[in-house]
Amino acid sequence: MRAVRRTASAVAATALIVAGLSGCLGKDDSGSRGGGAATGGGAVQGGVTVASADKPVAKATFPSPIASGATVDLAVLGLKAGGRLADLSISMTPHVPNGATQRITPYLLNGGTPLGVFLIDNVNLKRYLVVKDSSGHDLQTDYVTTNIANDQPGQLSFTFAAPPKGVDRIDVQIGNWPIFHDVPIAR
Prior knowledge:
Layout: H1 2-24, E1 43-45, E2 48-50, E3 58-63, E4 71-82, E5 85-95, H2 106-109, E6 118-121, E7 126-128, E8 154-161, E9 169-173, E10 180-184
């Protein structure tokens, strides 16, 4: 019970921090607040944000070790830098045979290993990690407990230190899958 309370407190604190940060970043050209999803919200279903139909900046389908014959569609919905932070929005759509009876999370889609989402700056030779709040919690979607419905897109978000202004494109590493190269940074 204590762990549940701690987890609930951590989630609430992270939500407040992210909401506060996104409110400080101003508005982008589309009129939405900076710091949130980079390409339009999406609807919330069962605690998971279902990705919107906006065109992703990069996408690919990869095998997943969650089950024999399983695949996952990964899409980078956008990377938006504002102030000192950058928000990455991605979409994962699992395709698990007989997955309707199985719990599907990004963690399990990645073979039961940490998701490890990084930005790789080839100009300055840096790797950007997800930033932490004042309590030491990563500012990202909880990929271990977040459920995604089979054959339905689920949106995840990750907050990083913003790359310097001279960096217009960056590589994005998501889990054990191949790197997405030259993802544009919206500013």
